[in-house]
Amino acid sequence: MPSLEARETRDLASELKFAVDPALAGRIREWVRPRLVPDPYASEPGGDEYRTTTIYFDTQDLSVYHRRGSYGRSKFRLRRYGAADVVFLERKLRTAGVLSKRRTLLSVDQLPRLQHRSADSEWHAYWFHQRILMRRLHPVCQVTYRRMARLAMTDYGPIRLTLDDGVLALPVEGPAFATGAGVPVVPDRMILELKFRVEMPAVFRQLVETFTLRPERLSKYRLAVEALGRTELRSVVRGQQTIAPRA
Q1: Rounded Cα gap, residues 109 and 103, in angstroms
Q2: Would you call 206 helix, strand, or coil by DSSP?
Q3: Which residues form the domain of 73?
């Protein structure tokens, strides 16, 4: 069982993303697997795959999507792996070349507490609840995909490669995971991501050169909003009970 609370700060962190077609993704998988080790938490076919489901939060006017002010530097989300009965509450924040993450483990049956209009300071998820109240954030949409993850250690710390397949989006009306087929977010494409610090490691440079990859500015959340329709999602958010702190 992972720790209830985790924090990570990475200076000079880089994340390069690429949209690749399935045929190319298959070749990349074959190239990568002998060179990087599997994610220790992965267990599905290939020993390096798992399913991820994420609920993203935004304001009524989608300030996170539009990257307005401080909303453009942080994301608040709920992340679940497979059909686990626990979920991670996460904040991802990027400022001046520093990427920081904070996450807290919570049982799925406690998620309704995030709808309360005041935060309980005795609850271990207080920090997350308090921040979504103050920033007037609401659950907006759910994004699901199957991920392959491989790792390695370098002089500057760990590096990570992920390849996300079958990215689907659904609107949500509260902090609860939805069921349904979902809307394809990047039809006929998979999202490859390379994460490293300071400088690109040799294995990633070789990968990019071998397959002539060109990085793109990709955000699964933003792509999901566009796939579902901004007007529809604004209506979903407005239909939720207004989340605001009590005086």
Answers
A1: 17
A2: helix
A3: 5-239
DSSP 241: P
Q: Which residues of 15-36 are buried (b: 16+ CB within 10 A; e: fewer)?
A: ebbbbbeeebbeebbeebeeeb
Tokens read off for 186: 């990047």
- Torsional class of 16: left (φ above 0), alpha (ψ -120 to 50), beta (otherwise): beta
**Average pLDDT score over the chain:** 88
Q: Full-prediction pTM beyond 0.70?
A: yes
pLDDT tens digits for range 47-101: 899 999 999 999 999 999 999 998 998 999 999 999 899 999 999 988 766 778 8
* Residue 80: how many other CB atoms lie within 10 Å: 20
Which residues neighbour 63 within 8 Å (Cβ) at sequence distance 6 or greater? 69, 71
Altogether, the residues listed in the chain come to a count of 247
Q: How many CA atoms lie within 13 A of 200 on its CB side?
A: 13
Domain assignment of residue 247, yes or no: no
pLDDT tens-digit profile of 137-187? 999 999 999 999 999 999 888 999 999 999 999 999 899 999 888 999 998
Secondary structure class of 29 (helix, strand, coil): helix
Separation between Cα atoms, residue 16 and residue 195, nearest integer Å: 7
Tell me the CATH number at 51: 3.20.100.30
Tokens of 173: 């009306």
